[in-house]
Amino acid sequence: MAKTPITVAYGDGIGPEIMQATLDIILAAGAEIDIEVIEIGEKVYLRGLTAGIEDSSWDSLRRTQVFLKAPITTPSGSGYKSLNVTTRKTLGLYANVRPCVSYHPFVQSKHPNMDVVIVRENEEDLYAGIEHRQTSEVYQCLKIISRPGCEKIMRYAFEYARNNNRKKVTCFSKDNIMKMTDGLFHQVFDEVGADYPEIEKEHWIVDIGAAKLADTPEAFDVIVMPNLYGDILSDVAAQITGSVGLAGSANIGASCAMFEAIHGSAPRRAGQNVANPSGLLLGAVMMLNHIGQGGVASRVHNAWLKTLEDGIHTYDVYKEGKSTRKVSTTEFAQAVIERLDKTPSTLKTVNYPKESKKIDIKITHRPRFKKDLVGVDVFLNWDGEANVIGPLIEACGTEQLKLVVVSNRGVKVYPHGHAETFCTDHWRCRFENPAGKNITHNDILQLLSNVHNAGLDFIKIENLCNFDGVRGYTLAQGQ
Ligand code: NAD
How far is Cα 173 from Cα 84, in angstroms, rounded to an integer? Predict the structure, then answer.
């Protein structure tokens, strides 16, 4: 078999130790790979490269399109960009797949029957990283959710479920509050799900969904989530299987893919030969499947399950009475290598398909809607009371644009606000056409000119539009 080129980064903290263990195991199992090593993380950051990666490393990643990555340490302090977020977004790795499985009775877990796969959207949401300080008191982070972004992740989740014989896909969102962004996520889930009649579908509001996941994870199968909820809840899910050190993850894009452990670089454990390499090893198993070496993936996974069954455990899962030996990272790797021709007796043997079943998502239909500009929200930085700013900004209105409402942190404060409402120095002033007619950019410029002449400090505007006649903005709370 021709060797598949892959890019490897040894990372920081426990990274080099768990990467060596992982490579030793998969090479002993017969993985046909050609390794290109790149340096990423702390050393690169400290050389002054705020992205944590050299330009030349991108060439390797573009060439091999397969990245096996150990965890890295992001130096604290502002100015350093998360390399994980940069890599995912630069390479278009839109789907993050995190299987969270319990290994009862060999690894202690309160949830013996847990077998959940979290499919996390990886490029959008609050992780777009668009943040601004707007006033003395107010900071903003933009939450971006796009229709193609939702379509890609939903189709990926359903295709994953179909390929892996999963019966149900659950969507978590907070669309009772974020009706437009999370609302779109939920809506596209319903739309795409209709193409998969054999798969059960359900939706949970993320708060109660998270509670249910922590309490009764066996109620779930595949869960698809926006970026932030997926980031948080996949750590929770991994931890309740028994150890965060047990879960691997795949970041999948149209051409490239990155495989890693879900945990970080655990700097306090570095250099002691104690870390559990299992998370990265299971990431490598996903990689072997991705590159069409399912036979090797099955050998590695089954030997690893057998090692757990034999009670050979690193410190993080070791339990007196349950485990037979507490082992180091290298001893654990050796124990897996010794079992490469064995299968587990109690845990379920895995048998991956020999060929790669790559999921290829193409978004071909990107509808455009008729957009009507009907108003504008003008945001002001102003120190004072609602009943003072209200009349001042109202006086700036024009024939085309009249003040409708002033809100503070989303709550209506003028006209007819409540004295009890706490106000910051950040005001949203909504103007609309009194006859409900379309307005122009010039109408907005005229309004802004009046605001400027009144000596008011506008910090940004948001246009109010309807799309095919459907309102493209929410009402202020109390409007
Ligand atoms: P962490 O996941 O590195 O470690 C938290 C604790 O979990 C450790 O102290 C250790 O007790 C345990 N642990 C984690 N992995 C283990 C393993 N393989 N074996 C045994 N025990 C393990 O989280 P942290 O301490 O919050 O973060 C440390 C650094 O890692 C930070 O710089 C953070 O930015 C970075 N990080 C990197 C990634 C990544 O590269 N993908 C992900 C998360 C965090």
Answer: 23
